[in-house]
């Protein structure tokens, strides 16, 4: 079977229900409006193959659409995920506050080195805005996660967000591969390509729970 | 099932939910024996227990979150109850009932009986409006919300029951019990509660319990894996969709996938678009068919009461989750090295050039494969991707939490039989457990043998040494070299200079990173970071020269500490 891509990234869309995760997904995925797939067995429409520096990267996007209230977002759900989009709704304060809970959930369940990005969605609805862009940025700085405001409706920054996340994952993987390759990079100082967001403070505080 | 387990698993989750429909008082719970007589279903294991036929529970202790409940109207009667884990030998124990005393069949049957009316109550209007995703969900989609709550309730209860087991063996026994419940639910086509139980075992609090999973029999693990496979999300929930197609009524499906489909339809076909109604009707029809299910199960009021007593307040869900996770950490402390963040695996698992990553659902699988791989890899520089669970299994040797401190001193590392916690032989790795002492360099390999992973000029100050604060500590300059899990210190030749040549070629100190963590030094210079060993109570502060270098050091050290593993216990079998 011919492979139509060079690598596959599993990405998750996480956030409260109603923040527009599915709209973002529909805006981005290639078969977004091929609606006949919605409940079709064996066909996953939540995919899109993008080109990153000449490499075909297939993004497989997992979405909890409609199921946020079930406690099914477990370790099994996070397993194998390489990037997580944390989505809140700029017109919904609660969804913004819950980002912290989602991050904690990710810390408990997902891989420590999973790439994350915060999206403040529905930024087209400026008149109903409850969360300022600055607060979003502040939160992102606090967790050292990239942040962008998006509008699935106006197709603003959605592409950018996915490309950025995918690029970060790819960079991290390449760095790791290089590091694990015994022929290269073993001697001397490693090339500093580290751009991952470490959170030592959180890390320590978690340890002190013991 | 051995009954001795009851002595440490009497605790039952009881989270009371005041707005809930069934309002039975806690006090008059002892169910009458005649319930049994009425029952047409054999009571299985219960018959030998005269005290079983009652359902009395105490409150689930919320710990420091208790204050949140002050406003709760039923707070008063909840305060009658006891915090978790102090049930043993209380005067209560003659009326306390535990999940283990109920046969899996009874639990499965009664859960199904409780689920069914709740499922049937769901109205099409709740669904077509996607009301459950709205802020006013309680008014526009009350039954969807109630059904979701039932799911979460079963899931929380399962987690709590398992965590109530005091030893890994006891917990494994409870886990096995719930796997049997799951099997029964599967037989009943109750995919709703089945998934709730599966999710509980996959939750962060349970999934990470390596020792517990290790005590689970191969058969139970396989059973669990098989059931869990149904709920893989791969290819748009293919496994579950196929399965739903293949079974006949009665069936209580997992509502989640239907909700997902409805949300997608809602977005793909906004109100007014021509296909919306047709598409939604397909989903509604399918649900309607399932809603016509009838089960011929005799109600067992004492079991139902028991199951109903398990509640939770949705607003406090976060705290319940928190408490459960904390309890889980307390029961089986993570190794101090880099495993503080729950179950881990690595992005490295996927090869860049790669094929589709295969996602292995089962923790037990991971345990198997992980343990195989671990055999040869402990203390080697190269990272072998496994689930963190396996690694923590490997590294719990250093799991020095307050609960295990004393035991660890007596117990040689790696020598505990996983099945019964008896001692095996004293492994050679004990030496390693005497961690992170500064060793004379003569013990270590010669300098030229050392591969260097990272190095640089740093200044170091001792803040805390074995719990004692060092008041007269000064900054010392070192050339610091990292190799594998070792840090080598080279003393300075002169008073300044930051190049390698400004430092001696013979090292003066060696530090093994086992048990250490690297963190930012809060409120200090931007280039400062700390190495902390919580066990020995030693803290060193470093200045790396620049914030960037400090970040690099932390990352490098974390990378190493994350992969430190201990040799596998001698009697751990691999199941693959």
From TrEMBL, chain A:
Membrane topology of the entry: Lipid-anchor
GO CC aspect terms: cytoplasm; endomembrane system
A Pfam entry, by short name: Ras
GO terms, molecular function: GTP binding; GTPase activity
Keyword terms of this UniProt record: GTP-binding, Lipoprotein, Membrane, Nucleotide-binding, Prenylation
Region (Disordered): 174-195
Coiled coil in keyword set: no
Localization of this protein: Endomembrane system
UniProt main location, coarse: membrane
Similarity-based family: Belongs to the small GTPase superfamily. Rab family.
Protein name: Ras-related protein Rab-8A isoform X2
Protein's organism: Bombyx mandarina
Organism lineage: Eukaryota, Metazoa, Ecdysozoa, Arthropoda, Hexapoda
From TrEMBL, chain B:
GO annotation, cellular component aspect: plasma membrane
GO BP term, example: Ras protein signal transduction
Keywords associated with the record: Guanine-nucleotide releasing factor
Classification via Gene3D superfamilies: Pleckstrin-homology domain (PH domain)/Phosphotyrosine-binding domain (PTB) (2.30.29.30), Ras guanine-nucleotide exchange factors catalytic domain (1.10.840.10)
PH domain ranges (all copies): 462-562
A GO term, aspect molecular function: guanyl-nucleotide exchange factor activity
Signal sequence, renumbered to the chain: none
PROSITE patterns membership: PH_DOMAIN, RASGEF_CAT
Pfam families: PH, RasGEF
InterPro entries named among the record's database cross-references: PH-like_dom_sf, PH_domain, Ras-like_GEF, Ras_GEF_dom_sf, RASGEF_cat_dom, RASGEF_cat_dom_sf
Domain Ras-GEF: 103-334
This protein's name: Ras-specific guanine nucleotide-releasing factor RalGPS1 isoform X2
């Amino acid at each position: 079977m011919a492979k139509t891509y060079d690598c596959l990234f599993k990405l998750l869309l996480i956030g409260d229900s109603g923040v527009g995760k599915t709209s973002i997904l529909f805006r981005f995925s290639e078969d977004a409006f091929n609606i006949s797939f919605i409940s079709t067995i064996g066909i996953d429409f939540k995919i899109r193959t993008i080109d990153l520096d000449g490499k075909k990267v297939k993004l497989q996007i997992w979405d909890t659409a409609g199921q946020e209230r079930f406690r099914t977002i477990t370790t099994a759900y996070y397993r194998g995920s390489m990037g997580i989009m944390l989505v809140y709704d700029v017109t919904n304060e609660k969804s913004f506050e819950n980002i912290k809970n989602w991050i904690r959930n990710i810390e408990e369940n997902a891989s420590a080195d999973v790439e994350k990005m915060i999206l403040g969605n529905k930024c087209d609805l400026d008149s109903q805005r409850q969360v300022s862009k600055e607060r979003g940025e502040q939160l992102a700085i606090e967790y050292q996660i990239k942040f962008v405001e998006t509008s699935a409706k106006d197709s603003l920054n959605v592409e950018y967000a996915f490309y950025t996340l995918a690029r970060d994952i790819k960079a991290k993987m390449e760095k790791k591969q290089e590091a694990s390759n015994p022929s290269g990079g073993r001697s001397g100082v490693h090339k500093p390509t580290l751009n991952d967001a470490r959170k030592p403070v959180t890390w320590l505080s978690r340890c002190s729970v013991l | 099932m051995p009954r001795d387990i009851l002595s440490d698993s009497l605790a039952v989750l009881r989270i009371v939910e005041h707005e809930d429909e069934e309002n039975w008082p806690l006090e008059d719970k002892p169910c009458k024996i005649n319930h049994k007589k009425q029952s047409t279903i054999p009571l299985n294991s219960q018959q030998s227990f005269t005290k079983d036929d009652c359902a009395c529970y105490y409150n689930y202790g919320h710990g420091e979150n208790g204050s949140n409940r002050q406003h709760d109207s039923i707070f008063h009667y909840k305060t009658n109850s006891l915090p978790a884990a102090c049930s043993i030998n209380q005067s209560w124990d003659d009326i306390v009932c535990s999940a283990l005393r109920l046969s899996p069949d009874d639990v499965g049957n009664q859960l199904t009986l409780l689920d069914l009316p709740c499922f049937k109550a769901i109205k099409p209007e709740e669904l077509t409006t996607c009301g459950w995703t709205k802020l006013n969900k309680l008014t526009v989609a009350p039954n969807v919300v109630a059904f979701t709550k039932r799911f979460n309730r079963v899931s929380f209860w399962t987690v709590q029951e398992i965590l109530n087991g005091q030893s890994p063996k006891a917990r494994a026994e409870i886990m096995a019990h719930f796997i049997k419940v799951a099997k029964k639910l599967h037989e009943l086509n109750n995919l709703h509660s089945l998934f709730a139980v599966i999710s509980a075992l996959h939750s962060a609090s349970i999934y990470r319990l390596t020792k517990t999973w290790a005590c689970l029999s191969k058969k139970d693990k396989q059973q669990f894996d098989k059931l869990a496979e149904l709920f893989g999300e791969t290819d748009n929930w293919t496994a579950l969709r196929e399965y739903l197609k293949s079974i006949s009524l009665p069936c209580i499906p997992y509502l989640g996938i239907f909700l997902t489909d409805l949300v997608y339809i809602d977005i793909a076909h906004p109100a007014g678009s021509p296909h919306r109604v047709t598409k939604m009707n397909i989903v509604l029809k399918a649900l309607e068919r399932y809603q016509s299910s009838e089960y011929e199960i005799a109600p067992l009021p004492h079991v139902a009461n028991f199951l109903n007593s398990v509640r939770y307040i949705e607003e406090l869900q976060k705290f319940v989750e928190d408490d459960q996770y904390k309890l889980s950490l307390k029961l089986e402390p993570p190794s101090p090295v880099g495993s503080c963040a729950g179950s881990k695996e690595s992005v490295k698992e996927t090869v860049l050039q790669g094929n589709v990553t295969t996602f292995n659902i089962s923790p037990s699988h991971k345990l198997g494969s992980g343990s195989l791989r671990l055999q040869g890899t402990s203390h080697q520089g190269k990272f072998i991707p496994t689930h963190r669970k396996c690694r923590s299994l490997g590294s719990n040797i250093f799991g020095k939490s307050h609960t295990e401190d004393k035991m660890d001193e007596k117990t040689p590392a790696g020598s505990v039989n996983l099945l019964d916690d008896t001692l095996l032989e004293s492994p050679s790795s004990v030496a390693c457990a005497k961690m992170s002492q500064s060793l004379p360099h003569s013990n270590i390999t010669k300098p030229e043998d050392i591969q260097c992973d990272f190095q640089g000029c740093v200044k170091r100050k001792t803040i805390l040494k074995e719990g004692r604060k060092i008041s007269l500590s000064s900054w010392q300059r070192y050339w610091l070299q990292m190799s594998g899990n070792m840090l080598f210190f080279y003393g300075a030749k002169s008073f300044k200079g930051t190049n390698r040549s400004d430092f001696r070629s013979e090292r003066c100190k060696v530090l093994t990173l086992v048990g250490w963590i690297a963190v930012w030094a809060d409120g200090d210079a931007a280039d400062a970071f700390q190495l902390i060993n919580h066990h020995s109570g030693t803290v060193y502060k470093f200045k790396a020269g620049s914030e960037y270098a400090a970040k690099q050091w932390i990352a490098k050290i974390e990378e190493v500490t994350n992969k430190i593993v201990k040799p596998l216990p001698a009697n751990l079998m691999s199941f693959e």
